[in-house]
Amino acid sequence: xxxxxxxxxxxxxxxxxxxxxxxxxxxxxxxxxxxxxxxxxxxxxxxxxxxxxxxxxxxxxxxxxxxxxxxxxxxxxxxxxxxxxxxxxxxxxxxxxxxxxxxxxxxxxxxxxxxxxxxxxxxxxxxxxxxxxxxxxxxxxxxxxxxxxxxxxxxxxxxxxxxxxxxxxxxxxxxxxxxxxxxxxxx
Length: 187
Known about the structure:
Blueprint: H1 13-118, H2 123-182
Helix pairs in contact: 1-2
């Protein structure tokens, strides 16, 4: 007699495990593909939303750079005007002081000439006086000249410090504005 059973043949344990693993693998692959598609769609949506924001930021950055350049230019122009004004004042003071010194020298020379004319009678007396007057006038001229140079140097130093202060202020403003412009908005 034959032992043929009418029941369907049962699969073995390893075959069942193999089928289960294949089903899991197929499900995992499908899920991974779905996740990939959703991720790509989401990335495209975010990129589309970010494009106008990027353009707006670029426009703001350009406008800020232009404003900073204009302010720096204005500060530089103002500093140059201040320096020019200070130099003009210093030059005027030097010229005035020199003119006064020249006038005093001319007066002293005129007096010395008068004394020399009168000195024909009193040569020794007048010669001594003339030497004293000439020495005093030279000393006074040197003192006046030294004062003029000192004042001119002070005016120049003041102009330099004013220009440096203006440059520092412009640099500080530029740095602050550039730092603000570099900040990225939070999406």
